[in-house]
TrEMBL record:
It is a multi-pass membrane protein. The lineage of its organism: Bacteria, Bacillati, Actinomycetota, Actinomycetes, Micrococcales. The chain crosses the membrane at residues 69-92, 104-125, 182-202, 237-263. The keyword S-adenosyl-L-methionine does not apply. The keyword Cytoplasm does not apply. This is Energy-coupling factor transporter transmembrane protein EcfT. GO terms for cellular component: plasma membrane.
Amino acid sequence: MSILTPTIRPSLVARINPVAKLAAALLISIVLLLSIDVVSAAVALALELLLLGFAGLSARQFWLRTSPLWIAAPLAGLTTVLYGVDSGAVLWEWGFITVTEGSLGLGLAIMLRVLAIGLPGIVLLASTDPTDLADGLAQVVRLPARFVLGALAGLRLVGLGIEDWRSLGLARRARGISDARGPIGAVRLFAGQAFAMLVISVRRGSKLATAMEARGFGADHVERSWARPSTFGAREVLLVMLGAAIAAVAVAAAVWAGTWSFVLA
């Protein structure tokens, strides 16, 4: 497991090919981007929450992984309510800020839509090992091996970078460099550590690129073999169909309620 992937409980979703998880999340996201209404987003979010419990994440892992989304969604909705397009009756007004019935409904739709689009991707990919995802992209989607392996190597370095940042901070503290006072001192401390981190990352990336080239990872027009075969079977098809069903039910509910509004219309 990567440092970017939490230790998850064995589950059916964890054993599904990552390409199917990515396809299901993208399918729901694309359909939800076609309209901005409360009904479709609310229905999709409710159905997703019923199924995300099978992803294998504990409650703590779920909230830690999705916490940025729970912060960003209300902020996006609040911004739309305060500064969105005004329509309908005016509910509150102060200076250049106006809250109307239309902006309130639009803000609620934006907040629900951010959650409905973001949650499946975060939770499904949190139950995926990066190596499995690379195997699936190369063998199932047939993406170029150089691109896939380079992206995988870069993703692995992100985990090492987190550990390097912590070790660098401890080392600077042991040498007395971290004794900064005031906001200016904190900014200078952060800038110095960030520059040192940049130097370490460039050196490590150069060494990794050289090592991968020496081992033949950069060869063109070569049929590459894979240690672990990536298959796309009945479980993967079922997950993609489940994502399509969620998107279809959400659209059908919005059309039935009369709230569906195609964004390009």
